[in-house]
Amino acid sequence: MGFGDLKSDAGLKALNDFLADRSYIEGYTASQADSVVFAALSSAPKASFPHALRWYNHIKSMDRSALPGVKKPLDSYGGAVPAQGGGDADDDFDLFGSDDEEEMDAIKQQRIKAYTEKKSEKPKLIAKSNLILEVKPWDDETDMKKLEECVRTVKCDGLIWGTSKLVPVGYGINKLQISCVVEDDKVGTDFLEEEITKFEDFVQSMDIVAFNKV
């Protein structure tokens, strides 16, 4: 069990593979499990570990001391991913279905060829995430309509802006809550924060309040 030494490439690879189809270390929301694993890292994972880097940037933006759950030893988390039942038909594809030894090689080669052709026809899955951002203005005199217009001018391949709303903060100040869908391999949270906070006449700060894989 465990990821091993998270300061080594081997440990980072184990973490990256584990997060390939997960948003968090345990369950569907951030918890102290994420806090423990985050603390074991010496720095942000390299770009060659994209799933681990996505998770790291997301957890970095949170108040980790306020996350729910109970901290456990680092080696309590991670480990091999259990096999899932009820997979697609490919998982049940028997390459060696013949009991006749004389025909086995020929049938095996035919089935390998059919299997390879079937796999090659499947479209490549694109990993996407749904984010909800909160963009805070400087004061109650900030033009929130103009602020949102500035945010939506941030464009790149793999980024689609969604719905938005204003959320009262207090003292007449509202913050902008806006959703977007990103392709994980093309758009990172660091990029979004850097681009949005460039509008320094309107934007005080940006936070990520929700991060879920699509």
From TrEMBL:
Classification via SUPFAM superfamilies: eEF-1beta-like (SSF54984), GST C-terminal domain-like (SSF47616)
Domain Translation elongation factor EF1B beta/delta subunit guanine nucleotide exchange: 128-214
InterPro entries: eEF-1beta-like_sf, EF-1_beta_acid_region_euk, EF1B_bsu/dsu, EF1B_bsu/dsu_GNE, Glutathione-S-Trfase_C_sf, Transl_elong_EF1B/ribsomal_bS6, Transl_elong_EF1B_B/D_CS
GO cellular component labels: cytosol; eukaryotic translation elongation factor 1 complex
Domain Elongation factor 1 beta central acidic region eukaryote residues, every copy: 95-119
CDD domains: EF1B, GST_C_eEF1b_like
Gene3D superfamilies listed in its UniProt record: 1.20.1050.130, 3.30.70.60
GO MF term set: guanyl-nucleotide exchange factor activity; translation elongation factor activity
Pfam families (UniProt xref): EF-1_beta_acid, EF1_GNE
Keyword list, A-Z: Elongation factor, Protein biosynthesis
Family that this chain belongs to: Belongs to the EF-1-beta/EF-1-delta family.
PANTHER family assigned: EF-HAND AND COILED-COIL DOMAIN-CONTAINING FAMILY MEMBER, ELONGATION FACTOR 1-BETA
Quaternary structure note: EF-1 is composed of 4 subunits: alpha, beta (alpha subunit of the eEF1B subcomplex), delta (beta subunit of the eEF1B subcomplex), and gamma (gamma subunit of the eEF1B subcomplex). Interacts with elongation factor EEF1A1.
Free-text function comment from the UniProt entry: Catalytic subunit of the guanine nucleotide exchange factor (GEF) (eEF1B subcomplex) of the eukaryotic elongation factor 1 complex (eEF1). Stimulates the exchange of GDP for GTP on elongation factor 1A (eEF1A), probably by displacing GDP from the nucleotide binding pocket in eEF1A.
The protein's name in its UniProt record: Elongation factor 1-beta
Taxonomic placement: Eukaryota, Metazoa, Spiralia, Lophotrochozoa, Mollusca
